[in-house]
Amino acid sequence: MKLKFMKAFVKHPLFYLKYATVLSGVVDIDFHSDNFLNLVETISTVVKNRKSIIRFGDGEISLLLGFDIRFQEYTPELAYYLKRILKEYNDKSPYVLGIPWRYLVMDSETLKKWKKTHFWIPFKIVFSRYFDPNTIYGDAFVFRHLARIGVNIFEKILLRIRPCPDEITIVANEYTRHTVTYLWKTTSDKYNLTKDITLNYINIPKRNAFLELHNIIDRIHEIHTHCKNPILISAGPTGKVLSYILSDRGYWVLDIGHYFDSFRVIHLETLKKYHMKSLSV
Predict the structure, then answer these.
(1) Is pTM beyond 0.70 here?
(2) Residue ranges of the Glycosyltransferase GT-D fold domain (predicted)?
């Protein structure tokens, strides 16, 4: 661990010096909540304007600093794309950039009390390099919140779009398929959508999906027939890059992150009952 820290310090000496000064309270990095949309405003902006959304978290910051994370190894190309997403973002971008801003507006002492300094002080330092006070940012936790309160994203969000989409494409790993099936089946049965909306599912690797970036893009181009129909991506940092590239090409992409995973964990009993019922049919 000490060796890893020393290597990181040599690579980013200014970052770690800044980290020490912020952590100690000598200086702080201030953000104002006026620059950030809340959960409802974020969803409204994305749906009404058909803007894509890209959400950044602590994992993306770790990759920008050259570290691996649990399901994605660092590569210079991945870090390059993540940096471009931050650097190029403004109010005219085809995507809303979602940021975990509630932690960013906290001072160092509050983060210490919450035991969140390890995650969010690095985020504050890196994000401050790209932050534009004249630009509005979204809320990164929007889909996690929807999962927590049991909102079916198909029924409550996508079916309220006008005109209603005739296809939806999911880009995620195999472990989310059961949850996707449950959410889509309950919605399509309720509104008799089987003949009206096509659901596409593109399976991606659970780990190091970035290695398959260009193959995934090719498959989306092959399957997804209309760029104004929504593409839901749950692919970690690779999802950010996919959303960035595809939104630039005119596609409407929602980087939903761990929505399906969070829904499965929080509503496990409901999913178990559904699975047992489907097996008995």
Answers:
(1) yes
(2) 53-263
